[in-house]
Amino acid sequence: MNLYDLKRSLISFVYPNRCPFCDKVITAGGFFCENCAELDYFKNDMSSKNTFCCVYNEKSKPFLSKAKENADGYAISAAAKLLHDALVRNNVLHKIDIITAIPARKAAKKQRGYNFPALLAKEIAQLSEKKYSPKMLVLLRETEEQKELSAEARAENLKGAFGARKLFPGLNVLVIDDVCATGATLNEARRTLEERADAVFIAAFAKTI
């Protein structure tokens, strides 16, 4: 049993492990019950460097909202497990040396108190026994909220927004986000890190179609 499994097992003694979809009590090592593991998986077939776990639709939105807005630990662990498995299926995870996440806007982090992509990235790193670097990417300036912007405006909003603390020669980096809409955020992160690392892979829990 690795440290990640041990941690989840110990927590389950105090807070019984529950399926984040139906709230049913499940085994300490489980992430969701068998009846609820029915998300429609979506694989990006354009590049093995892009991995998405599922389509962002009416089926995945409530689950992602539960994990993202309420910091539901069961849902966060389940989301991390689902994305981890998608990375394995896409033949990416074994190529990765280090995992990081899209940094949060200051306003968003202040409102929530945490950065959801970072929580996902940390759990995926623990599941895969990879190194996690929370500060590999930094936000150089505060950006506008992307939600209401067009694809062109999103790209412009993020241009030059990210920086990297140091060089990572010879390392393959995986960048995690929660939802990929136009790809502007992840593409800008990849552009920033490609100047400093050997290869950059991107992944998000859900992809807007």
Tags for this model:
alpha/beta; 209 residues; 37% helix; Rossmann fold; five-stranded parallel beta sheet; two-stranded antiparallel sheet; 7 strands
Describe this structure in words.
This protein is α/β, with parallel strands linked by helices and 209 residues long. Helix 7 (184-194) links the parallel strand 6 (168-180) and strand 7. It contains 7 helices and 7 strands, in the order H-E-H-H-E-H-H-E-E-H-E-E-H-E. Helix 2 (61-69) packs across helix 3 and helix 3 packs across helix 5 (116-128). The model has no long low-confidence stretch (mean pLDDT 85). Helices cover 37% and strands 20% of the residues. The chain has a single domain (42-142, 151-207), classed as Rossmann fold, CATH 3.40.50.2020. It has helices at 3-14, 61-69, 73-89, 106-112, 116-128, 151-158, 184-194, and strands spanning 50-55, 98-101, 131-132, 137-139, 162-164, 168-180, 197-207.
Work out the helicity level. 25-40%
Strands, count: 7
Order of helices and strands: HEHHEHHEEHEEHE
- Strand-pairing-aware structural class: alpha/beta
The CATH architecture: 3-Layer(aba) Sandwich
Spatial extent as radius of gyration: 17 Å
| Number of domain modules | 1
